[in-house]
Amino acid sequence: MTYFKTEITSEHILSDKPLHERLLFPYVQIAPQLSGDVMELGCGWGRGIDCFQLDQIRYTGVDKNKSLISDLQTNYPLCTFQQLTLPDLSSFATGSFDHIIAFQVIEHIENDELFLEEIHRVLKPGGKLHLSTINRRFSISRNPWHIREYDAIGLTALLKMFFCKVDMKGVEGNELVWKYHFENRKSVKNIMRFDFFKLQYKLPAMLLRVPYELLNRLNRKKLICSQQGKFREISWKHFHVNENPDLGLDLFAICTKA
What is the count of structural domains for the chain? Predict the structure, then answer.
């Protein structure tokens, strides 16, 4: 299943590979921990589903994109998929799930408190939320698809409003991953030098999405061909969990309901 938006990234597009592998890593990490009823919020094209033991869990995926949900239901007939727009989870009963996955989703949600309140409601007592989001400390430019971005202190405080235990860590990479990140940062900075009037911070997000998409795609293609093609070697195995979330490219939290 190929999806071409740079905000989602595809495993089938070579220039997306470094970011796809970075986003795949948390799925690999949590897969052994999953049991019972599992719901993924913002499942997209199903990046991490193949990491899970689907014969040992009851998986439900939700996303706002109807065509993706339809394709997923065809490809994974033993799973359940539902189209909905977050943060509305009213179609699910209180205390329905043992685990909820929300990777790279909360930054897109206008009402993040309602989002977490609903997640808390549909979790069973003792249930866990597995959440990731970009670390604002390492954000490269304004992303017009994001409502907001978080640092470790702010996100931890927000999560503790709803969960009795919050284990906040970071997703960090090896030397090659950091090389890609800083080359990307340098390339974007070169592009942004033409933004004399700082329009990326002044214009409505909707007006920035098309140029963001085009420039982002061109930039990724250039990066994947640089460094003698070494960035093509990046895989999820080049990432690890850092106990200090401030050092992670992404924040990675496991939250437990009382």
Answer: 1
